[in-house]
Design goal:
The structure holds two protein chains of two kinds. Chain A contains 14 helices and eight strands. Chain A is an alpha+beta fold. A three-stranded antiparallel β-sheet of chain A has the order 1-2-3, with no helix packed on it. A three-stranded antiparallel β-sheet of chain A has the order 6-7-8. Chain A is globular and about 70 Å long. The longest helix of chain B has 9 residues, at about 5-15. A three-stranded antiparallel β-sheet of chain B has the order 2-3-5. A two-stranded antiparallel ribbon of chain B has the order 1-4. Chain B has a single domain (about 30-110), classed as Alpha-Beta Plaits, CATH 3.30.70.3270. Classes of the chains: A alpha+beta, B alpha+beta. At the A-B interface, α2, α5 and α6 of A face α1 of B.
Chain lengths: ~350, ~120
């Protein structure tokens, strides 16, 4: 049978960002795939070398519009580690609250986009409506919906005080109510299962050998989560990674869905246990030497490396984002699938190309 | 689809989830950071805001010959991080909760100290 090679993307209705898949098909079946990136490079790593090191927080936040707080947190934790700064406990709890709110809004956005990719428009709307509650909570507590700018080196800039805390709890209760109506549709609906179960299988051993991270790896049965490394206060909150053993698109979807439930519980638990105290410590010196940190983003493990020379400018800042590790998995997931399943399988790794290309 | 039937029935009898803008406008939260308001009467032209601005949206220049300091604020470059508003010792900068109407409402604002 004749083989046809054609581009899928970079401008495609199902893709939230610009990635091209060069698909080779035999009839309706995909036999080869070649992902092409390079449409969204912004030179952020180079720009970070020209910035004063505290100003890089705002630059790092802009690597990704969805997990902006976690990018800022990662950079702050990295510089704090290099400068041996001890962050106040209250700031650590606040960082967990905002990180988990970012994770919920990222996962809800993704669940909506997944529903859209298999044509379930009403579910897409329900997911994004529930996500509005989280965005409102972020705006109420930090001042902005997407770019929070609340993390600084040595702590946080804003507080969830006693006046604001009941409001956050109310918002969480409202979100849980919304989630309760969405969860069973994803988990049990016949049409959702038809489009996801057994599609885009990533075997357990290949998931590890290809170096996948985050929900893509956990959906293939590996309990690997950077939150278990003990940054912020995840240890005190009794965090345990969510794992599914299905290895297919359904398993990856269920990991994210269960993580949303877990994140809401983590936010409430962090609010319950939050101690009184300062929000920041004063940092006066400059970063020197090298540092490397791993932090869990909604899409997986984010790795940052920095080298300082004792001045206000960094010599090097390197960011490795989770989608960069997850793209090779598409070479295993896509060959053999139907052309109509390509959008769902591509979405199942939650591609964030703006992160990947920085 | 039967799993969504409860939702569908609820949506059928409830009003729209969206707000009928511009008749009903969204109330901003008290902590919202929409745009930077500047009071030149309180300003002492110390230049702290220009030094700490991560987007280089504020510049303060000193003209030593004419004993004159000028300040330029480019709202197109401003990222509304509110660092300047937090650190301004005179309280001449603060964040307003209501946003601009449109991009053309933004300006590059000049101000200068009085000649002495």
């Amino acid at each position: 049978m004749a083989r046809v090679t054609f581009p899928f993307g970079p401008q495609h209705p199902v893709l939230p960002e610009a990635i091209q898949l060069q698909l080779t098909c035999e009839d309706e079946r995909v036999v080869e795939v070649l992902p092409v990136i390079g449409y969204m490079h912004r030179g952020i790593e180079k720009a970070a070398e020209a910035n004063l090191y505290p100003n890089n927080i705002f630059l790092c936040e802009r690597i990704c519009g969805i997990c902006s707080f976690i990018h800022a947190l990662c950079y702050c934790e990295l510089i704090e580690g290099m400068m041996r700064v001890e962050v106040p406990p209250r700031a650590k709890y606040l960082r967990v609250v905002w990180s988990e709110l970012s994770r919920i809004h990222s996962h809800m956005l993704w669940l909506g986009l997944l529903a859209d990719s298999f044509g379930f428009e009403s579910l897409f709307m329900q997911c994004w409506r529930a996500r509005e509650i989280i965005l409102d909570t972020l705006e109420m507590t930090t001042g902005q919906r997407v770019i929070q700018s609340s993390c600084v080196i040595g702590g946080v800039r804003r507080d969830i005080d006693l006046d604001m805390e009941p409001g956050v709890r109310r918002q969480m209760a409202a979100f849980q109510k919304e989630l309760k109506s969405i969860y069973p549709v994803f988990a049990k609906d016949y049409t959702v299962k038809l489009r996801t179960v057994g599609k885009g299988v990533l075997p357990r051993d290949q998931a590890w050998s290809l170096g996948t991270v985050g929900p893509t790896l956990r959906g293939s049965g590996w309990a690997d989560d950077a939150r278990t490394l003990g940054y912020a206060v995840y240890d005190d909150l009794g965090f345990e990674p969510v794992v599914e053993i299905g290895c297919d698109s359904y398993a990856r979807m269920m990991v994210r869905l269960r993580e949303v439930v877990q994140s809401v519980e983590l936010v409430i638990k962090a609010l319950d246990q939050m101690p009184e105290g300062d929000l920041t410590v004063t940092v006066k010196s400059f970063p020197e030497g090298e540092g490397l940190i791993r932090v869990e983003q909604p899409r997986g493990e984010l790795v940052e490396y920095a080298r300082g020379n004792g001045t206000a400018y960094l010599e090097r800042l390197k960011v490795r984002t989770p989608t960069f590790s997850n793209i090779p998995a598409l070479l295993v997931m896509l060959p053999g699938c139907e052309l109509a399943d390509v959008p769902v399988i591509t979405m199942s790794i939650d591609p964030c190309i703006a992160c990947t290309e920085r | 689809m039967p799993l969504m039937s409860g939702n569908l029935i609820k949506n059928l009898f409830s009003g729209p989830a969206t707000r009928p803008y511009p008749i009903v406008k969204r109330e901003p939260f008290p902590r919202a950071r929409a745009r930077l308001a500047y009071d030149p009467d309180k300003c002492t032209y110390c230049g702290i805001c220009a030094n700490i601005c991560p987007a280089a949206a504020i510049s303060v220049e000193e003209d030593r010959e004419n004993l004159h300091i000028s300040r330029v604020y480019n709202s197109f470059a401003c990222i509304s991080c509110a660092r300047c508003a937090e650190l301004c010792p005179q309280g001449s900068l603060r964040m307003e909760v209501s946003p601009h109407g449109a991009a053309d409402a933004k300006t590059v604002a000049y101000s200068a100290s009085k000649e002495t």
